[in-house]
Amino acid sequence: MNIQIQNADILLFDRGEKPFLRRCDLFIREGCIAGIGEAPADFTADRVLDGTHRLAMPGLINCHTHAYMTLMRNIADDLAFDEWLFGNISPIEDKLIAEDGYWGSLLGCMEMLRSGTTCFLDMHMFPGQSARAARESGMRAAISRGLVGSGDDEGGTRRLHEALSEMEEAKGDSRLSFLLAPHAIYTCDEAYLRRVTQAAKEQGLRLHIHVSESRNEIENAKKQFGASPVEYLARIGLFDVPTVAAHCVHLSEEDIDILAEKGVSAATNPVSNCKLANGFAPIPKLLAHGVNVCLGTDGAASNNTLNLFREMGFVSLVHKGVTGDPLAVGAADTLKMATLAGARALGLEKTIGSIEVGKRADIVLLNTDCPQFSPRNNLISALAYSANGSEVDTVLVDGEIVLEHRAFPGIDEERVRYEVNRITEKFGKQE
């Protein structure tokens, strides 16, 4: 379908990757951005979308989440990290079946689309279910099966086989890509990490792993390996494969140098890290060292939302407060983290992440005719500091309208909510 978006404020990036706005028409042909301001030759629109009082921006990219964890939203709050994970979340996960993962993931896709996210990097535990949910919602997704194991143990072998089989089954779906995801250094031993790294090299895949999330993780790594998690992973060769390292909260200067040298993308999850009292990643230092910093929500079990607009505002505000520097992380930085940097982390920078001729049309239309965007003094600042996600009106992925006037043309929303509520009955009554 050919789509013309008329008279919208278009969020673009200059050659220095700084955002700016241009009011013009946008032309989409066969899923690609075909023209900005000027229609391509022989273009005829099948649909015309009115861009009056609309801001068109690249779809946001959530670079670390566990979409199925919407099932555990608001169920284990105000707890220390180890008690939250091992005492509450893991036992609940043991009660889930694959179909549960599908419904939880589909609910997550709905939430992400409604708050402007068009692509997400998922670490899941139910083969095929995250991909199924992404496909049915119309989202773009980078899928990674969470891998836990020791050496060539049966469970680790099975999980790795599931991850590779899932990729084979999804071949031909252009909106899906895949990574291998060893969960963390405390759930995978060295032999297994090396095994997964080698499989990634052989398959030409990227890696996705939790790194330096909590203080206990750092202390245990130094006791067990005589090194920080970052130093340890570099030593065993994991960072020789392009890697998305989730969290990166507790980093030394040496750690930051390693991440920069190895080209590791740091996916910061500021709300989740704050809520679990794990601290804040040193984002200003990472940016100053040239590390590609992208943005994630983590799962709804720890964040409690999958809203990247919330993350954009928080990541900027918290680092101003922590550093005492009002210039520490600005609106332009956060927009880049949630778009261009996210695409770069996933190896999709030539495909998505910005509105450019030739890229896929993953586009979000926000309604700027609302109190929080008035007056229209600086819409770029408004995206970081005023937006809350409710402004999202229409969303396109690959040029397909997957959300229109906040309604889902391809999802039975009532059925999803029913199934999710049914599933959570197995968790027992909550206070």
How much β-strand is present in the residues? 15-25%
Report mean pLDDT, rounded to a whole number.
96
CATH superfamily of the domain at 60-345: Metal-dependent hydrolases
Number of helices: 15
Largest sheet: 8 strands, mixed
What is the structural class? alpha/beta
Give the N-terminus to C-terminus distance in angstroms.
50 Å
Radius of gyration: 21 Å
**How would you sum up the global shape?**
globular
Q: For the record, what CATH class of the domain at 60-345 applies?
A: Alpha Beta
Notes on the protein architecture:
- 51% of the residues are buried.
- The mean pLDDT is 96.
- The longest helix is centred in the N-terminal third of the chain and has 17 residues.
- The N and C termini lie far apart (50 Å).
- Helix 3 links the parallel strand 7 and strand 8.
- Helix 2 packs across helix 15.
- The chain has a domain of 286 residues: TIM Barrel (Alpha-Beta Barrel).
- With 431 residues, it is an alpha/beta fold.
- The chain has 15 helices and 16 strands.
- The strands form two sheets. Strands 1, 2, 3, 4, 5, 14, 15 and 16 form an eight-stranded mixed β-sheet that branches. An eight-stranded parallel β-sheet has the order 6-7-8-9-10-11-12-13.
